[in-house]
Design goal:
Blueprint (H helix, E strand, L loop, with lengths): L3 E4 L8 H10 L5 E8 L24 E6 L3 H13 L4 E6 L4 H4 L11 H11 L6 E9 L6 H9 L5 E8 L10 H10 L4 E4 L5 H10 L5 E4 L1 H5 L3 H7 L7 H19 L3 H15 L6 H10 L3 H15 L5
Parallel strand pairs: 1-2, 1-8, 2-3, 3-4, 4-5, 5-6, 6-7, 7-8
Bound molecules: flavin mononucleotide (FMN).
Length: 318
């Protein structure tokens, strides 16, 4: 079976520092969609706004930049600027579930407005040099909202549609709605990428067995928790040894790189706490290390806790 794996965009996690560190220690991902870049009112974004997608920061893994926004006037110049940087595809975020974003009719907040989406595509697609890919949920409030959208998407040339089969209001609760996802496959002319809760090889095999036509799969949290997962899925078997050591090397590399870019210890600590919410889930009794890290207020103390954990307690669970 030949298929591709995409690293999902996770804002605050899968930035270029993470992607590069991942590539130095693991493999299995064919490409990544970047965390979203917001549209701007200015015609040209400053390099600092585009840091995550600057080609020199992305030598290790091919990326598709993702843009979040709801009007073509602001989207088009950003997409063109990304084309100038060499990106032949950009992804439009129609999935972000956060109320602050959605209530401004961005991300999943646009899903109940098929007319707006239609107008956006009508204006944008002929005006940008890049191919457009979209990342959606099934709807904002109801999973059947997607059935208003797929016929619209069918009228446009899109590179692909990435579907995370939950609604926006669900955030990450409940199970992915596989029956509605199946119906989406029947209602679309586009290439579909499945995304959601691929956390282990068994889940992947079950999904791949059910959705035989899917050639591309996207994994987010499952790979942050267990970065061996993409290559396990590619190999179709799980025979890694020495995981704690390998993971530790990766972790130390990642931490070292973040130390270089974060100005203050507070930001670095917050970033690492975010990661340990996921990392901890790969270890036996992971709640303990998660809580310890979460409670820490000082970077020095954090570093001691993690070092002690790797030296004494870390046992890989999966
Ligand atoms: C902390 C966090 C940040 C996310 N940031 C983005 C984002 O910037 N753009 C996006 O399209 N999706 C974002 N997502 C959604 C993921 O890309 C993905 O669709 C979702 O996590 C389901 O896939 P998974 O179960 O493999 O993680 C984010 C999810 C999380 C948990």
């Amino acid at each position: 079976m030949s298929f591709k794996l995409y690293l999902a965009p996770l804002r605050g996690f899968t930035d270029y520092i993470y992607r590069n560190a991942f590539s130095r220690h693991f493999d299995g991902f064919d490409e990544a969609v970047t965390p979203f870049i917001p549209t701007l009112k200015t015609i040209r974004a400053k390099p600092s706004h585009l840091k995550d997608v600057l080609p020199e920061n992305n030598l290790a893994m091919p990326v598709v930049p993702q843009i979040i926004g709801n009007n073509h006037e602001n989207f088009i110049p950003l997409a063109r600027q990304l084309s100038d940087l060499g990106y032949d595809t950009v992804n439009w975020n129609l999935g972000c579930p956060f109320p602050m974003v959605a209530k401004k009719q961005r991300g999943s907040g646009l899903l109940p407005h098929p007319d707006r989406i239609d107008r956006f595509l009508e204006k944008t697609i002929p005006a940008i040099p890049n191919r457009l890919s979209v990342k959606i949920r099934l709807g904002r409030k109801r999973p059947d909202e997607v059935f208003q959208l797929l016929p619209i998407f069918n009228r446009y040339h899109l590179k692909e549609i990435i579907i995370h089969p939950r609604t926006g209001v669900q955030m990450y609760s409940g199970e992915p709605d596989l029956d509605t996802f199946q119906q989406c496959l029947e209602a679309t002319d586009h290439q579909i990428i499945y995304n959601g809760d691929i956390n282990d090889l068994e889940t992947f095999k079950r999904l791949a067995g059910r959705f035989k036509g899917i050639e591309h799969w996207m994994i987010g949290r499952g790979a942050i928790i267990n970065p061996f997962l993409p290559s396990i899925i590619k190999a179709g078997k799980d025979n890694y040894t020495g995981r704690v050591e390998k993971f530790r090397h990766f972790y130390e590399d990642l931490f070292g790189e973040y130390q270089k870019v974060f100005a203050g210890p507070g930001h670095l600590l917050e970033r690492m706490k975010g990661f340990w919410f996921y990392f901890s889930q790969a270890f036996e009794d992971g709640r303990k290390i998660r809580k310890k890290v979460h409670r820490t207020l000082k970077l020095d103390r954090y570093m001691e806790i993690v070092e002690h954990f790797f030296d004494e307690n870390a046992k890989w669970k999966r």
